[in-house]
Amino acid sequence: MKSRIKRRSFLAGSTAVVAGAMASHVLPGPFAGAVAMEGAGYRTKLLKAMIGNPDEATLKSLKDAGFDGIESNQRHASIKEATAARKLAESLGLRVHSVLYGWANFNTDSVDADIESVSRSLQTAAAYGADALLLVPCRIGGMAMPKPWEFEIEFDEKTGHVLQVVPGDNNPYRKYIEAHNHAIDTSTEAVKKLIPVAEKAKVIVALENVWNNLWVKPAIFAHFIKSFDHPMVKAYYDIGNHVKYAPPQEWLRALGKQIVKMHVKDFLLNPDGHDGKFVHPRDGSIQWPSVRNEIEKIGYNGFMTIEDDGLSLDEFSRRLDSIIAGQ
After folding, report:
1. Which residues are bridge partners to 259 per DSSP?
2. Distant-in-sequence, close-in-space partners of 172: CB < 8 Å, separation ≥ 6
């Protein structure tokens, strides 16, 4: 059986705006002491975080700006360092909720070394008290491939292998298709080897897709995540990363309950709707009220972590408050 993925215009559809004042909501359990902004009528609870080094100065700054947690960018911190950071964060009412591992190279000869490196980071994440490790399996490039707006992917639902990337003649993209399918196979094998480590650490392997030229449409990335059929392998969805391929609403609907974490940034499309550039949240083409509604529909509760810099923490916090409120 094969599936086909067509491109839809990012600008199609109307924006549903949710009105109402913001209200504070104190979360129980592991989030005790954390305050999330809740839009009127929303049942889902979203928490605010930034990426950074969870040292004392950073954590205190985040606390003062109204954040609930941090995603550590210290993937190989020692167990002692991570444990100390966890205690410090908790003393401030914050949480180190995830660890950013970043790029792996599961489609190269360094795969074994990278599996070992990720395994160590899963243990570090456990010491932080984090419940997820952000991992980008690999990347491909250096060959002819379609423009983002040209993709019309068909893939085999049994293997996940790409069958075509554009309508008609796919011979110009044969090397790309072969590299894509190789990456699917080797990444699948590598992640499966990490599952026992993740189970022991009680840390989810959260697979993120970036501009790595892989899984560029919602359906095929969702299929890849679901193929593991395991609670310790989920999606880390970045709302701004794939705007040039499909609207965030489509990614949210496709990934649904597979999403364990979210990154927040924005992307400004060119006037023709093609390509563009990353911008600060709420400065781009993303229809945030519509995105917030989709987050509500899929029932996502958890952290919204800004992956951006160039603004003050107070300003990032205010912008997240507006997004969380559906504004």
Report:
1. 235
2. 144
For the chain, 327 residues long, give each residue's pLDDT as a single digit of tens. Answer: 555 544 433 333 333 333 333 333 333 333 333 333 344 589 999 999 999 999 999 999 999 999 999 999 999 999 999 999 999 999 999 999 999 999 999 999 999 999 999 999 999 999 999 999 999 999 999 999 999 999 999 999 999 999 999 999 999 999 999 999 999 999 999 999 999 999 999 999 999 999 999 999 999 999 999 999 999 999 999 999 999 999 999 999 999 999 999 999 999 999 999 999 999 999 999 999 999 999 999 999 999 999 999 999 999 999 999 999 999
Rounded to two decimals, the pTM is 0.88
Q: Where are the alpha helices (DSSP H) in 8-148?
A: 56-64, 79-91, 111-128
| Domains of the chain, start order | 2-324 (3.20.20.150)
Handedness of CA 64, 69, 72, 73 (dihedral sign): negative
Q: Are strands 162-164 and 153-156 parallel, antiparallel or unpaired?
A: antiparallel
Positive or negative, the CA dihedral 202, 204, 205, 210 is negative
Residues pairing with 263 in the sheet: 238, 305
281 within 8 A of 264, measured Cβ to Cβ: yes
CB contact at 8 A, 238 and 262: yes
Rounded CA-CA distance 302/32 in Å is 13
